[in-house]
Design brief:
By secondary structure, the protein is α/β, with parallel strands linked by helices. Helix content is 38%, strand content 16%. The protein has 16 helices and 17 strands.
Length: 456
């Protein structure tokens, strides 16, 4: 007997009664129009009433080829006809092995060992724990510390909160977090040029001083390379990541590159590591790895580190860490097909062309705007920061970014705010007319909302 599907009104009522959404103040959510998305086509999302919205944040920075991609759907269905899940705890399945080999190719085999997990926070947790255990196993128990950069965001688990900025997201958990050290991010004026041209930045000088003093007690340095997404698309100059890698090597500290956000086409290459000619000790991947289809993450490391963990069980060298859905076959199948397609897209020049267009459109649309503090763009990332016309800042509860994001829906755009900012993170496959729509919709929403916001 068929059962009628619930109406949108019924779904909305159930959402209000049972839902609790991530990174969402639920009172604010309930007080404003809800958006129930039911389908996706390419870079567009469609609600229950048939309205279309460009996916301006790539479904939290994951989407590579658009929604409902025929090739990814086919890869998923073919794997589903074989097996949906097989644990990697002491067992194996072929598609995980094939993807691990693909990911080793990102560093031309230098990082040859792949440890699968299921999200970016876990990929980083794995890297941290591997670094800590490595130094214990080789007899350097004192190397326990972690260095990160100011403004960092590496996830919301306790380990990743500990190595991130103690912002409003995580500050209340400070009593439970382990101590770490930070060094300053590069100043914005450096980011238009190369480190080689600007000389040693204050950021690198501060890091060098820190390493000279504390390398003997430092296990690893962790960095979001080239652009800190959750800090507001804050950039680093070309050559900065290479300079960081050189310092880590000089002082015998592991380098963890958190490419959960920057990997898989976001900055114009498969990884920033490839773009900058850097091979870290640990490369953390997630988000775009499975193209926005399924939870999948990987931590890739070297044979040198892997071999230290080998021995008799009684020696206690085993890495006791794992997740139920590590290396899920469905996710791995989609990831392999996504990587194949992405390599072709990058080689065609399409991603570079779209990134250049995004930069031009943002410059044309936002330069000189009276209510913009600044805007910035790198690859297929961007941000605009708003400000009042007559004072420095709005009160926190004015929620300028949130108001603009809500208004953007009326112009066919779903996008995420960050404080008094809007972040541009479209699918990698976005087309030229869609980039123009993205930028135009934000400008229209800004001009509708910002002039009317009160500053008292």
């Amino acid at each position: 007997m068929s059962v009628n599907p619930p109406t949108l009104g019924q779904l909305d009522a159930a959402d209000r009664r049972f839902g609790w959404h991530p990174f969402t103040q639920m009172r604010e959510y309930h007080d404003n129009p809800r958006l129930h998305l039911v389908r996706g086509e390419g870079c567009w999302l469609i609600d229950g009433e048939g309205q279309r919205y460009l996916d301006g944040n790539a479904s939290v920075w994951t989407n590579v080829h658009g929604h409902n991609d025929a090739d990814l759907n086919r890869a998923l269905r073919e794997q589903l006809d074989k097996v949906a899940h097989v644990t990697l705890l002491g067992l194996n399945h072929p598609i995980a092995t094939e993807l691990a080999e693909d990911l080793a190719g990102l560093t031309k085999g230098v990082l040859s060992r792949c440890f699968f997990s299921d999200n970016g926070s876990n990929a980083v947790e794995v890297a941290l724990k591997l670094s800590f255990q490595y130094w214990q196993l080789v007899g350097h128990d004192a190397k326990r510390g972690v260095i990160s950069m100011e403004g960092a965001y590496h996830g919301d688990t306790f380990g990743t909160m500990s190595v991130g900025e103690r912002s409003e997201f995580h500050r209340r958990f400070n009593p439970w977090l382990f101590a770490g050290q930070t060094f300053p991010a590069p100043i914005h004026s450096e980011c238009a040029g190369k480190i080689a041209r600007t000389g040693a930045s204050a950021s690198l000088a501060a890091l060098k001083t820190l390493l000279e003093r504390d390398a003997a007690t430092t296990a690893c340095l962790i960095l979001e390379p080239r652009v800190q997404g959750a800090a507001g698309m804050v950039q680093q100059p070309e050559g900065f990541v290479k300079a960081i890698a050189d310092l880590c090597r000089q002082y015998g500290v592991h380098l963890i590159l958190d490419e959960v956000f920057t990997g898989f086409g976001r900055v114009g290459a498969l990884t920033v590591s490839e773009l900058e000619g850097v091979v870290p000790d640990f490369l953390c991947l997630a988000k775009g790895l499975a193209a926005g289809y399924l939870p999948l993450a990987a931590t890739v490391t070297s044979e040198k580190i892997y071999e230290v963990f080998l021995g008799k069980f009684s020696e206690g060298k085993t890495f006791f860490h794992g997740h139920t859905f590590s290396g899920n076959p469905l996710g791995c199948a989609v990831a392999r097909e996504s990587l194949r397609k992405l390599k072709l897209m990058l080689a065609s020049g399409q991603v570079a062309d779209r990134a250049a267009l995004l930069g031009r459109e943002m410059e044309t649309t936002f330069a000189g705007h009276a209510q913009l503090r600044t805007f910035r763009q790198l690859g297929l990332t961007g941000a605009v920061e708003f400000k009042p016309a007559d004072v420095d800042r709005w009160p926190t509860d004015t929620r300028a970014g949130y108001r603009v994001a809500l208004a953007a829906r009326r112009h066919g755009l779903v996008i995420r705010p960050l404080g008094d900012s809007i972040l541009f993170v479209p699918p990698i496959s976005i087309q030229a007319d869609e980039i123009k729509h993205l930028v135009r919709a934000v400008r229209l929403a800004m001009d509708e909302v910002l002039p009317s916001l009160k500053t008292d």
